[in-house]
Amino acid sequence: MSFKEAYKELRNGKAIAHEKFAESGYWIWEDNTIMFKSYSGINYCPLEVPDVGYIFDLIVDDKWSAFDEPEPGERR
User: Which residues lie closer than 8 Å to 59 by C-beta, 6 or more apart?
Assistant: First the structure.
């Protein structure tokens, strides 16, 4: 799905992931921002990474999926 569609799902409480990082984690909407939740327990705001261009490359791509956020310790 497109990021536009995925973003709507994100804002409605779903987790989203791009196929490039789906094996390592997903994005959620938390405290009025997007947070990356990794399956290894590292969480951060993807908008604060050193290579923001990478994030924008993902946003313009159409390889997104939306799903219910996994329980702690579970993988999607």
Answer: 3
